[in-house]
């Protein structure tokens, strides 16, 4: 098991995956990480849809004009949903849960990449969220935040270069 400081350096966005399936145990650990994440007032109003059907993944990869095509080659994805009527912090809560899954994936040796869905769409004006809703039969009261593609990376990317950290963006006391 890696220390969190090591996971921070190692975690990268992977968009190229092998054909190897993700084990059921690993899927459970990814979901456990999401479900154990902090949420506003501990409401835990998030929902997750696990997708491993190749046809559904291919359809989801066309949900927006840019940044999702690699999903068609991923063995699995998890769609992150929220309930705005139940929790006005659904975006934040879903983002925290997604981040937990990203770091869990790294610890498991999996690659993963966030695909933004909320407020994205197709050039014809169709919202990506509506495309995803139609493919996965998501109820109207739910909102789609993002999709995370998961898989075994074809190659490992180098760790983050700490020399590239933007410390100038850190302000203490006042801006």
Could you give a quick summary of the protein structure above?
The protein is α+β, with helices and mostly antiparallel strands. The chain has helices at residues 4-10, 24-35, 54-60, 90-107, 128-136; strands spanning 47-51, 76-82, 111-116, 143-151. The chain has a 4-stranded antiparallel beta sheet, sandwiched between helices.
Estimated structural class: alpha+beta
User: How many β-strand stretches?
Assistant: 4
State the end-to-end distance: 38 Å
Mean pLDDT: 96
The description of the largest β-sheet is: 4 strands, antiparallel
Overall radius of gyration = 17 Å
Low-pLDDT residue intervals, each spanning 5 or more residues: none
Strand order of the largest sheet: 1-2-4-3
Helix content: 25-40%
Share of residues in strands: 15-25%
H-E string: HHEHEHEHE
Overall shape? globular
The total count of helices amounts to 5
Q: What would your notes on this structure say?
A:
The protein is an alpha+beta fold and 175 residues long. It is built from five helices and four strands. A four-stranded antiparallel beta sheet has the order 1-2-4-3, with helices on both faces. Helix 2 (24-35) runs antiparallel to helix 4 (90-107). The longest helix has 18 residues, at 90-107. It starts with a helix and ends in a 24-residue tail after the last strand. The mean pLDDT is 96.
Q: Keywords, please?
A:
single chain; 175 residues; alpha+beta; four-stranded antiparallel β-sheet; 4 strands
Strand-helix topology:
Elements: H1 4-10, H2 24-35, E1 47-51, H3 54-60, E2 76-82, H4 90-107, E3 111-116, H5 128-136, E4 143-151
Antiparallel strand pairs: 1-2, 2-4, 3-4
Helix pairs in contact: 2-4
């Amino acid at each position: 098991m890696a220390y969190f400081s090591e996971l921070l350096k190692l975690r990268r966005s992977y968009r190229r995956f092998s054909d190897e399936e993700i084990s059921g145990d690993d899927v459970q650990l990814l979901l456990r990480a999401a479900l154990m994440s902090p949420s506003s007032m501990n409401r835990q109003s998030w929902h997750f849809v696990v997708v491993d059907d190749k046809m559904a993944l291919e359809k989801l990869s066309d949900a927006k004009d840019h940044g999702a095509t690699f999903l068609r080659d991923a063995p699995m994805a998890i769609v992150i949903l929220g309930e705005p009527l139940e929790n006005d912090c659904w975006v934040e809560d879903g983002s925290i849960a997604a981040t937990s899954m990203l770091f869990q994936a790294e610890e498991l040796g999996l690659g993963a990449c966030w695909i933004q869905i909320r407020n994205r769409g197709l050039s014809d004006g169709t919202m990506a969220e509506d495309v995803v809703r139609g493919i996965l039969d998501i109820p109207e009261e739910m909102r789609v935040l993002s999709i995370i593609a998961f898989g075994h990376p074809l190659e490992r990317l180098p760790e983050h270069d700490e020399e590239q950290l933007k410390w100038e963006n850190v302000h203490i006391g006042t801006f």
